[in-house]
TrEMBL record:
Family designation: Belongs to the bacterial solute-binding protein SsuA/TauA family.
PROSITE patterns given in the database record: PROKAR_LIPOPROTEIN
Signal peptide: 1-23
GO cellular component: periplasmic space
Subcellular location: Periplasm
Taxonomic path: Bacteria, Bacillati, Bacillota, Bacilli, Bacillales
Organism per entry: Pseudoneobacillus rhizosphaerae
Name of the protein in question: ABC transporter substrate-binding protein
Key words, A-Z: Signal
Primary location group: periplasm
Family matches, as PANTHER family: ALIPHATIC SULFONATES-BINDING PROTEIN-RELATED, TAURINE-BINDING PERIPLASMIC PROTEIN
Pfam families cross-referenced by the UniProt entry: NMT1_2
Length: 333
């Protein structure tokens, strides 16, 4: 009787082991590979790196691979051609694609940053900076038609500066070569992302004198987008991705710049953790990191106003046409 009971117990134990093994295999089979193209690799995108380093994507069953594809045009090409599943880029690019009558337009589904992320860097140290000091100078701006350049011009005009009359505006330098061009002697002022701006300051190559983010107000500066067909056919992946991003946004909101810097340090191995913390604090203090993934209508309209002011808006596009907030709203509930 005792032997029979032992045999039965071993049988049950074996079956349980088998079931757990099968469940584990099944779970592994459900891991979704997601390819993301980011327009640049910057501390400006901190919540994305938090989601990677803290395992928030893995918690949702996603294996996320991020590749840097410099330039909004190249990033969107990667998305539209099917080279990646998701693009992290300025929302203006979705308007450009839509204006070309794309059969499968790019849909904005999760906002990551809500202000401009660039800073005005002067070659010489400037005491008591004022914007009118740019008049008569050579200004190395960003690529024409991109969000940094349009916000840059918007801010200059706000301060009574005509970017095409009151200074020499250079905007034909490729995105990846703007910092090296300034470093080699081009321009009196340059518009740079972090951590490059702070690195230049550390090395004595330039000095941060103003923030374009503080000057321009809320705008959907960088969002995650995917093709309309992907929104329809792979909504589960989009929802899981958004859920991980929202979790990371909340984590960034609730933690100190120092703790955030330590978390994302592996993404910036050549940058000192103290410098990362300084940059994170700078972005946090000016509200650059979105605290939730919803791209609202007011921000969308502000984006189009800035594009229109720069002469780059093909046509007014309704918020509902290129923005999907349903997934983000569902995730937040």
């Amino acid at each position: 009787m005792k032997k029979r009971w032992l045999k039965g117990s071993f049988s049950v134990f074996f079956i349980l082991i088998l079931m757990f093994s099968m469940a584990a295999c099944s779970s592994k089979d459900k891991v979704l590979k997601v390819k993301v193209a980011e327009v640049t690799h910057s501390i400006f995108y901190t919540p994305q790196y938090v989601a990677l380093e803290k395992g928030f994507f893995e918690d949702e069953g996603l294996d996320v691979e991020v590749t840097t594809v410099p330039g909004g045009d190249k990033t969107m090409t990667a998305l539209i051609s099917g080279g990646v599943d998701i693009a992290l880029v300025g929302s203006e690019t979705s308007i450009y694609v839509y204006a070309q009558e794309a059969n499968d337009p790019a849909i904005n589904f999760a906002q990551l940053t809500q202000t401009d992320g660039t800073f005005l860097v002067s070659r010489e140290k400037v005491d008591n900076f004022s914007w009118d000091q740019l008049k008569g100078s050579t200004f190395l701006g960003q690529r024409k038609g991109g969000m940094p350049q349009m916000v840059g011009e918007f801010v200059l005009k706000k301060h009574g500066i005509d970017p095409h009359q009151d200074l020499e505006l250079i905007q034909n330098v490729d995105f990846a070569n703007i910092a090296p061009a300034f470093s080699s002697g081009t321009g009196d002022y340059v518009q740079l992302f972090e951590p490059t701006a702070s690195v230049f300051e550390q090395e004595g190559k330039g000095y941060i004198v103003a923030s374009f983010g503080k000057e321009s107000g809320h705008v959907p500066y960088t969002t995650f987008m995917t093709k309309q067909s992907t929104m329809k056919d792979n909504s589960e992946m989009v929802e899981k991705f958004t859920k991980a991003i929202y979790k990371a946004q909340q984590w960034v909101e609730e933690n100190s710049a120092q703790d955030i810097a330590k978390a994302i340090k592996p993404q910036f191995p050549d940058t000192d953790v103290e410098l990362i913390a300084t940059v994170v604090e700078r972005y946090k203090s000016q509200g650059s990191f979105a605290t939730d993934p919803i791209l609202d209508e007011e921000e969308w309209n502000n984006l189009q106003n800035i594009m229109d002011e720069a002469g780059e808006l093909p046509s007014q596009i309704d918020h509902s046409t290129l923005v999907n907030t349903k997934i983000a709203e569902g995730v937040m509930k």
